[in-house]
Amino acid sequence: MTDEILRIDNGKMRPMSSRSFRDGFLGKTLEDGLQELIEHYPGIIPGRQISSGSDDPPRFLLLCREMSVGGWSLDFLLVDQYAIPTLVEAKLVENPESRRAVIGQIIEYAANAADNWLGGKLFEKASKYYADKGFDLNELVTQLTENDDESASDFFDRIENNLMQGKMRLIITADKLRPEVRKVIEYLNAETRSIEILGLEISFYGDDDESFVLVPTIVGQSQIIANKKSGSEKPTTWDYQLFVDELGKLDKSTHTERLENIASWAKDAGVFVAASAKDPAFGLQGRHGRRIFTFYINSIYCFLHPSYHGDSTRERDDFVTKLKVIPIFNFSDKVVSEAKEGRTAFGSIDSISDDEFEKFMKILKEVCGS
User: Fold this and answer.
1) How would you label 101-140 residue by residue, b for 16+ Cβ within 10 Å and e otherwise?
2) Are 28 and 165 contained in the same domain?
3) What is the pLDDT of residues 26-42, one digit of tens each?
4) At what angle do helices 121-132 and 100-117 cross, to 10 degrees?
5) Owning domain of residue 300
6) Is 31 found in the same domain as 163?
7) What's the total number of domains in the chain?
8) 65: exposed, middle or buried (Cβ count in 10 Å: 0-12, 13-18, 19+)
9) Which of 6, 161, 189, 308 has a CA-to-CA distance to 121 between 20 and 30 Å?
10) What is the pLDDT of residues 152-200, one digit of tens each?
11) Tens digit of each residue's pLDDT (9 = 90 or more) over 233-277
């Protein structure tokens, strides 16, 4: 990094010297200044550098600071408009952890993320984080996605789906990354398939806290790698016709026939809910007006928290008891009692018998009020 940058005002050139975050920033010192910056200005992460070929490069919303994962604490958990979870660790170059050890640390966080954050836990944490600050998470999600048709709950479904598939972004942030750290980041990012591993250097120029310049630089990215891992495909709103049209492109099977039967019944019964997702999906509305199922091509997500069942634990438990008759819904008592939103079915609807499928359809008609 250069020792200074040059600013021209009214024809006069003004040099601005490089500053260390150790000199203080936003009234903070050491790593606190860097962390304060990311918390209040997540836009410091330059999406255009991450995906320079995209018409809509990643924009970020902070979900939680000091996010617990596997007995540790991640500095920041963010998400972009494509529901890609973004894990950020902030370290100063003088800190020994800013060397190779921090790479192992953030990879360990990623390895434990799905085990710790599924089942509505992310939604719960983010909702509390912003409620404590007096903000509405639904409004923030709408601003991020620019999609009025997708609720925060549906958006977090997509985040969980990406977590289950191992689609996430890891960013190590520092005032300056050491050469050996940059080399490892570049190697790992080139070799991994679904996970982006990036470095973010933030240079700080200026003589006082009233007038300064921040220059963020992404490390470890190339256009070829960015294209390979891009999650920058806007979700589709799958209404009934669009869903069945897409289903018709697949090979005819028991699975596709049953999905089409469910979708057709739901449309006729007035309980079909269009889903906003990258892959084909649709939801079913329960008796209390909230979505209680989401059907994907290869999985089913059913909402188990009492809030989806009239805020009634008794009604939720009755819902679970009904579903347990169907082999794919072998929920444990712990899964049910700890559920904040839902759980993906352990099997698919083509693995059950015709009699069991008929029972499942009967359950859907009961719980959806048809």
Assistant:
1) ebbeebbebbeebbebbbbbbbbebbbebbeeeeeebeeb
2) yes
3) 666 556 777 888 888 89
4) 100
5) 236-367
6) yes
7) 2
8) middle
9) 189
10) 888 888 898 888 878 899 999 888 888 878 888 888 888 777 788 999 9
11) 566 788 999 999 999 888 888 989 999 999 999 999 999 999 877
21, amino acid identity: F
Give the residue, 340 or 246, on which the prediction is more confident.
246
Residues 92 and 58 in one domain: yes
| Mean pLDDT score across all residues of the chain | 83
Q: How far apart are CA 64 and CA 267, in angstroms?
A: 38
Which run of H or E residues covers position 199? strand 196-205
Write down the pLDDT at residue 152.
85
Q: How far is CA 56 from the centre of its chain?
A: 17
Q: Do 163 and 31 share a structural domain?
A: yes
CA dist 322 → 220, 231, 233, 338, 339 (Å): 50, 37, 37, 19, 17
Q: How far apart are CA 344 and CA 118, in angstroms?
A: 10
Instruction: Identify whether residues 248 and 300 lie together within a single domain.
Output: yes
Q: Do 293 and 333 sit in the same domain of this protein?
A: yes
One domain, residues 36 and 163: yes
Which of 193, 210, 229 lies at the terminal end of a domain, its last residue? 229
- Together in a domain, 222 and 251: no
What is the Cα–Cα distance from 154 to 150, expressed in whole angstroms? 6
Chain CA centroid to CA 222, Å: 23
Question: What is the C-alpha separation between 184 and 180, in angstroms, rounded?
Answer: 6
Number of helices followed by number of strands (H, E) in the chain? 13, 14
Q: Check pLDDT > 50 for residue 295.
A: yes
Q: What's the whole-model pTM score? A: 0.63
Last residue of a domain, one of 201, 229, 257: 229
